[in-house]
Prior knowledge:
With 247 residues, this protein is of the alpha+beta class.
Amino acid sequence: xxxxSSTRHLHIEFRNVAVENKAKSLKxxxxxxxxxxxxxxxxxxxxxKELVAPAHEKCMxxxxxxxxxxxxxxxxxxxxxxxxxxxxxGEGTPIDExxxxxxxxxxxxxxLHVHTAEALAGLEGINLSRxxxxxxxxxxxxxxxxxxAKDSAHAxxxxxxxxxxxxxxxxxxxxxxxxEQDAIIREKPAVQDEPAQPPEGHENEQPPHHESRQPTHQQxxxxxxxxxxxxxxxxxxxxxxxxxxxx
Length: 247
């Protein structure tokens, strides 16, 4: 709806102001005041130009909707700071953050409604000449400060991006190493269980002796006993005694 960069040459402040209610004063016969939220708009480098208006009065038409919007809506960031009790600061870096400005010069700039580095860098013409003989030097330093800060922010963002990519790469490599280790473990043969070790203090005890028996299906069939043939001369002698008796 509104471009905040267009307020860098402005100092915008909202306040609560006591405004006389003339109708009530006339009716009551005494001064009656109402509290009203007002906006004070000053121009950087110009101590004479100032706009004062009720905060909720029509300010401009919204370029997109073509509807009227109030000062509180247009300068909503400044209005929210006012409602939360914060000090009103223009868009950009406060001059309190500029290391090349001392306290005396800082007070002079604030008296001229220059509250940010962006406002100081944007001064031109008569408003710049009100800063005195060192005004242009301050303007150039403010511009250099803004440019350096942008480069630093870009470098910081790039470094953060590189660090994020490095972390992601390390995480992927760790997952790949874990996957390889899991594959090696699956390929290894199962390790046979080692025999149980005897309890401490019983290392020299011998296990009880049990006679080994062969399984029944492995017993060998008994061998037939061999008969030794009797000597032949005994047989002949018996035959001789049989067929040729004595006498």
